[in-house]
Design brief:
This protein is an alpha+beta fold and 215 residues long. The chain has three helices and 13 strands, in the order βββββββαβββββαβα. The chain has helices at residues 88-96, 161-175, 201-211, and strands spanning 7-15, 18-23, 30-34, 40-46, 49-61, 65-74, 77-84, 106-115, 118-127, 130-131, 148-152, 155-159, 184-186. It starts with 6 loop residues before the first strand and ends with a helix.
């Protein structure tokens, strides 16, 4: 049959270690939050998102820079989880990605902890009843370039340019060709524009510094 139904896409982001879905109007399960720009938003908060990974894309936002779109199919719904390009969430997800069975459902669980006054974030991939280990780790980097400490305007910063370029190339060459695309479209009321959670804003500031580095 030549006729097809497009699948609706529900856009999600991560804030304070939780999956968030922004909605235009308050719902029975939504919470209000005022952004640093003074905008009042309504968000539904979830612990995890589950589905089969169908696509992964890198997109550049005019205001927030580069970020990842991870599409997951669950029945008739497609979820698009958006993460800042250099965030701890994205790094953890990408480092475990080669260990994922791409034909089976995954559960993506973000986490945030405060250690010595600083927010530490990560993202766990659960599949087949267990948490997947990182394919790229300190003990077994498998070719992953390390982050490099450099100095910019008298401030020491960690530059992850080589590491992220390596992971992006890995996704494009070894992961995306194995995925089954869905042809999803945006659902009415869901805004596709990414806006980072508060715990990613520090990462964005680091990204701004990195973008100015002379290499």
């Amino acid at each position: 049959m030549g006729l097809e139904h497009n699948t609706r896409t529900i856009f999600l982001s991560i804030g304070d270690g939780k999956i968030t879905r922004r909605v235009k109007e308050p719902t029975g399960s939504s919470k209000q939050r005022t952004t640093k720009e003074g905008k009042v938003v309504n968000e539904e908060i979830y612990d995890a998102v589950t589905g089969i990974i169908t696509d992964i894309k890198v997109t550049t936002h005019d205001k927030y820079g580069k970020f990842w779109n991870v599409y997951l199919q669950d029945g008739e719904d497609t979820y698009c989880l958006q993460m800042n390009y250099s965030s701890g969430y994205a790094s953890a997800f990408l480092k475990a990605l080669p260990n994922v069975d791409l034909s089976a459902r995954v559960k993506l669980i973000p986490s945030m902890k405060v250690v010595d006054g600083k927010k530490k974030v990560t993202l766990f991939i659960n599949q087949h009843g267990r948490a997947l280990k990182h394919f790229y780790s300190k003990e077994n980097p498998n070719g992953l370039p390390p982050m490099v400490k450099t100095k910019f305007k008298g401030q020491e910063v960690w530059d992850d340019t080589d590491m992220m370029q390596f992971l992006e190339a890995m996704v494009k060459t070894t992961i995306v060709p194995k995925l089954s695309k869905t042809g999803a479209v945006a659902a009415p009321g869901d805004a596709p524009d990414y806006e980072p959670g508060e715990d990613e804003e520090l990462t964005l500031e680091a990204q701004k510094i990195k973008d100015q580095l002379p290499f």
